[in-house]
UniProtKB/TrEMBL annotation:
Reactions this protein catalyses: DNA(n) + a 2'-deoxyribonucleoside 5'-triphosphate = DNA(n+1) + diphosphate
Record's keyword terms, sorted: Exonuclease, Hydrolase, Membrane, Nuclease, Transmembrane, Transmembrane helix
Lineage start: Bacteria, Pseudomonadati, Pseudomonadota, Gammaproteobacteria, Oceanospirillales
Cited InterPro entries: DnaQ, Ribonucl_H, RNaseH-like_sf, RNaseH_sf
GO CC terms of this entry: cytosol
Organism of provenance: Billgrantia pellis
Complex and partners: DNA polymerase III contains a core (composed of alpha, epsilon and theta chains) that associates with a tau subunit. This core dimerizes to form the POLIII' complex. PolIII' associates with the gamma complex (composed of gamma, delta, delta', psi and chi chains) and with the beta chain to form the complete DNA polymerase III complex.
Its job: DNA polymerase III is a complex, multichain enzyme responsible for most of the replicative synthesis in bacteria. The epsilon subunit contain the editing function and is a proofreading 3'-5' exonuclease.
Name of the protein described by the UniProt record: DNA-directed DNA polymerase
Pfam families (alphabetical): RNase_T (PF00929)
Domain Exonuclease, residue spans: 495-663
CDD domains linked: DEDDh (cd06127)
EC number of the protein: 2.7.7.7
Single biological process term from Gene Ontology: DNA replication proofreading
Top EC class of this enzyme: transferase
Amino acid sequence: MFRGKLPKRQRLIGLWLLLSGISLLGGALFAAWLDSLFQPQGIARLVLWLGCFSGGGTLFLVGLLLERMLFAPLRHLQVQLARLVANPDARDDYPPEGWLRGLGPDLIRVREAWRSDRQRLATAHAEGARSAARIRQELETLLQVLDTPLLLCDHHRRLLLFNQAAEALFEGHTGLGLGKRLDALLPVASLQDALSQLPADGSPRELLIPCDERWLHGVMRRVPNSHGESLLTLTDATAAWTHEMGARAGLAERLPALRRHGASLSSAAEALGSVRQARHIDDTLQRRLEAVIGEECQALGEEIERFGQLLEDMQQQGERLVPLWSNDLWRSLNERLAHHRIEVTPIGMPAWFKGDAPALLALLVTLLERLRAHVGNVGFEGEMRLGNRRVYLDLIWPGPPLPQHELAVWCERRLETLPLSPRIGDLLRQHASDAWSLADPDGTHARLRLPLPAVERVGAPPVRLPPRPEFHDFGIADLPPPDAELARQSLRTLEVVAFDTETTGLELRRGDKPISLGACRIVNARLLASDTFDVRIDPGKPIPPASTAIHGITDADVAGAPPLAVILPRFRDYVGDAVLLAHNAAFDLLALQPTGAGVTLDMPVLDTLLLSRALDESLDGHDLDTLAERYDLSFPPGTRHTALGDARVTAELWLALLPRLEARGLDTLEEALALQATAFDREDACT
């Protein structure tokens, strides 16, 4: 009946009250029969009735005593032991009570000895791991500053490491994540073939890889003396490829025409020289040759003009002209001007533009030095103005504008701080720009204007995220191969996606819909802090105020959000080959799998509610709040009843349950699912 476990508290209380009631009722009936049979009087009658009630009363009092002195302390001891198994450093809220009070010193001794052993073991590990920690720190620092996207995968093509540059390159791609297959990120057959044929000595191989609308230049090499790990570095070759196919291809097309006109001009000049030496030749031929030379000279001049235009295009479209944010330019400029006692105050709205940052900074420093000498001012204002396909960089000062002949002299000035000492005019031509001065409408200020190429981008640059510790996990290489039988895979090696939903209400079968979906990933028994999935969903119906009071999501929050039919395929891609995890998973799966959903979540599902109920059937309270308190887990402020916040705590709860499952010899997914099934009853099926 109890499957070898302690019966639930409600069953014990019910059985105790039933037996007590039966005993009292039997005693009352027996006393009444004896009273009618012998008809005792006085003390004898009192003794008769007390004796008949003594059995039921004793049973009631003994049950009450056992509940207070034994069963309640046993439940508290079970909670404390479960907490210690999950986390040896958990707080001690349930000291032994009642008849188990004598176990208090022993339990304290066991706990302290356990913690002492762990401390000594940690100290021993710290000595041996100090050098490894230093290497790891250096690796993480290198990953943060390395601008080249880098991926490291094992021989099963699972990602062991990637850096922030790779995250920026594949921003928003659901295939990027520790433990995920490289095939999901770059599903290119030629890449997989090249990786399988890499030489073991670490010699590089190069490949041009299509990725959406971009071309990536990849350099691959096998890591020497490894277990088949491969290193892949990537660069976005789209701009360079376009550049090769643009201005440089135009140069190649112009070159034969130049050679042809040059050869024709040379032949005509040679023929004209021969005609002039031969006096008997008619003047008509000489005039024709002169006409040919004139035509070829004109054509050659036109080709040279086109050639020069292509050279200017190459210079303007060169890879050194990159998108720049004006606020970053002003900040860097003021850092350089600090030594010159000049300051530029940015005004107006910031903007994106295209330029060569080092060259522009050197140019602006020189111009501001000349301006200070000319106008006698050390404080200037800087403004970016949007024009027609151009962005105007203005330097503003109080006073009259500069004469144009003065600017012409400045444009001939060479910048000695740059390689080859280019002139200011050369840098302006590199940016397809010029410089002129004009007066402001207020009549008191003037400005020096430099037009620069615009960039089709709006908004400030995204805030750079802090370094993340989960950019690498070399333990993934020791996990079973992806094609291993999932049911027999160890629980600690599972890739798990914990998820949760928020809905318009609890009546999913009567029309309530999901409005938020959050998920996070566990790889190698480690919760990845920033590998998350967090979206709002348009339910297509109003959100009741009673539901908003719980999760805080209003109709305005989901206005414009994509519907479930759009979100579900993206979530399926995010899950990949992982096992799903949820608390009361039946509810969340029903929310995500309505009739005609189109995408099926057919992977195994672990449920922390059922697992906790199966592990501690005799304990009350298996809701998320109670289990978080039981295992000393906490919700960050404002995250309770949010999809991502609840999913994170569910993931932490799973990691807390892992040691308890292992202590019972449950090591595989198949065994965990079997245990979970024992806690699923008809009440769950009808919910």
